[in-house]
Amino acid sequence: MKRKLTVKGKTFVWGERAYVMGILNLTSDSFSGDGLGVDLEKIIKQARTFAEHGADILDIGGESTNPYHSNPVTAEEELRRVIPAIRAIVAVTDLPISIDTYKPEVARAAFEAGANIINDIHGLEDPQMQELAAITGAPVIAMHMRGTPTTMQQMTDYNGDVVGALLEYFKLRVTELEVAGIARDKLIIDPGFGFAKTIEQNYELLNNLRTFKTLDLPLLVGISRKGFIGRGMVETGQEPPPPHERVLGTAAAVAIAIAKGADIVRVHDIPEIMGVVRLANTITRSYMQ
To answer: Strand runs (DSSP E) across 34-155, as ranges?
Structure first.
């Protein structure tokens, strides 16, 4: 029997198809160049566009994780960015909303404003975030990373086995989160592409995604517009295309991710990528585990 998760009246049947998470960056320093800032008109327009084109989840983030140009923001500033946006989005769409934050106070306020899912790049390391998830019973996305956005690219040594290292990490992390009171059927894991991984390690992870299916947990893949995609689109020595010109590369990587077992793909370019997702689902759904 396939595992299911119901969020805000929407039921996700893991293994039936890959679902799509649309990214709304409420920053000005996102690596992807699509930051919306706090312009509610733009935010509402993008949320509506994503919903109309078939997105299943909207992911709201108020702090950039760009390893080269981002600056940490206070909880107060993050709240200033995300809370009005969540309230505005709730008024125009009934899609589940995930809050992309590692700060418990931001997640708590986001839930009060209408968010439904915690998306934590630090894998819910903070005990207060674990407690919030346990008390609310909210679904959580636990991502793997090391260090901070400014230090993570100096922390890529996995003793030659990035896949094995991440598999062991998630085994331990899942056990810790269950002990903290978070039900296993509320857990989603994310390998954290681009976070403390080299270009080659990202390729290795993508090619071996199905290894993580042994954990019997839904798998989220966030690869949209990332640097390793741009690098792989050109020959050695050539300058990779900027993030907004990586749509075709993202499409190829998304199709591969779905074929390898991804349950959720997190993307920027919803209108352009939805056809790819539908085709990949149609071709591979009978092989999904």
So the answer is: 57-61, 97-100, 117-120, 140-143
Q: For residue range 233-262, what is the model confidence (pLDDT) as tens digits?
A: 999 999 999 999 999 999 999 999 999 999
Is 226 annotated in the active site?
yes
Question: According to CATH, what is the number of the domain 4-287?
Answer: 3.20.20.20
> How is residue 182 written in tokens?
């978070």
Whole-model pTM: value is: 0.94
Evaluate if residue 30 carries a pLDDT over 90. no
> E strands, 88-197, where?
97-100, 117-120, 140-143, 187-190
Any catalytic annotation for residue 186? no
**Per-domain residue ranges of the chain:** 4-287
The contacts of residue 285 (CB under 8 Å, 6+ apart) are 16, 17
| pLDDT band at residue 65 using 50, 70 and 90 as cut-offs | confident
Residue of 17, 108, 225, 226 marked catalytic: 226
Out of 17, 81, 225, 266, which one is annotated catalytic? 266
